[in-house]
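Thread: Newbie trying to understand structure tokens

Hi all, I'm a second-year student working on a class project, and my supervisor (Dr. K.) asked me to get a predicted structure for one chain before our next meeting. I've only ever worked with sequences, so writing a 3D structure as a token string is new to me. If someone could post the tokens and maybe explain what I'm looking at, I'd be very grateful. Here's the chain:
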Amino acid sequence: MELFHKIKNNPPNFPKFISASSKEFLEGLLIKDPSKRLGAQGAEEVKNHSWFENVNWDYIFNKKYQSFYIPKIKGDLGLKNFD
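---
Reply by user tm_fold:
Sure, no problem. This is what the structure looks like when written as tokens:
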């Protein structure tokens, strides 16, 4: 009950090392009033946030980015990649 009370009533605490853009982005996503939350006006609002300034959305849509990690999937359906 204490955790739910804190979530409902207290602002989030962020580590000091987090960038200003990251903090602003997370604060926008965590606004308690859904009508004021980042993304309430649609996905474009989120995509246009400065945190995503270096993201090429056309590349993502057209699957042009290379994955930095490709798991080795064998007969176990890749379940060895999880604990």
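A couple of things are worth pointing out once you decode it. The chain has a mean pLDDT of 89. The radius of gyration is 18 Å. Feel free to ask follow-ups in this thread.
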